[in-house]
Amino acid sequence: MNDFIPEIEPTPTFKTKQCTWLVQIVAFKLTYMPIILTLLVAYMVDYFYAIATLLISYLITGIVRSYMRNNSIPKQQQEYSYSDKAIAAWFLYRTYCFGEQK
To answer: What is the pTM of this model?
Structure first.
């Protein structure tokens, strides 16, 4: 059986510090924003609202992550699983840091 999906383009790496920092910031927000938001709501409001915030923020983060993944990663490579950092790198490479790859 030949189940191998050929990788056409490698995950982009950037040479400028601005694009590298943007990748780190976007990946951090994709990973930890639901938890940070939940802790903030739990501290400021109530635990019931914190649980609701956690569920809604996981849903919204998943939608944003899939939007970024589907619009930036090439169609032949979407079968692979990518980390949040790789999704952020692909998205910023396609939208903001156009030709600044190493």
So the answer is: 0.82
